[in-house]
Specification:
This protein is mostly helical. Helices cover about 55% and strands about 0% of the residues. It has helices spanning about 1-30, 45-60, 60-65, 85-95, 110-120. α2 packs across α5 (about 110-120).
């Protein structure tokens, strides 16, 4: 009987610890620092889209797929709201959920070209 109570207490503590961790991770996303620069997107031109396509293939295709569809918990980039450029920059810069942060890896110019590619729906707009 005592072993059963001890096991139950340990289980409750475990659930409480995991819940606390999940809550703190959820709030950490809200407190993520704002994305720097790249808040002024380059003009979406065929050249910028092509540079973005090249970057996408090298950096993003593995998780987001060849058609930006997503899968394996990756966001479907075809549905990214075109009026939320800052959200895109913040997500790529700081990471989000399973996506790692690209801060310090992607330059502001490269970020702008990626936005051109995603914003043009892979050059389809």
């Amino acid at each position: 009987m005592t072993i059963h109570r001890t096991a139950l207490s340990v289980s409750r503590l475990f659930v409480l610890a995991v819940s606390s961790l999940l809550i703190s991770v959820a709030h950490a996303e809200d407190d993520a620092p704002a994305a720097p620069a790249a808040d002024k997107p380059v003009s979406i031109t065929p050249e910028s889209i092509e540079k973005g396509r090249s970057l996408y293939r090298r950096l993003c295709l593995r998780c987001h797929g060849p058609e930006m569809v997503g899968g394996n918990n990756a966001f479907d980039l075809r549905t990214f709201p075109l009026d939320q450029h800052d959200r895109f920059i913040n997500s790529v810069t700081n990471g989000k959920r399973a996506m790692p942060p690209w801060k310090g890896i992607i330059s502001d110019e490269e970020m702008a070209h990626l936005w051109s590619y995603v914003g043009s729906r892979g050059g389809k707009l």
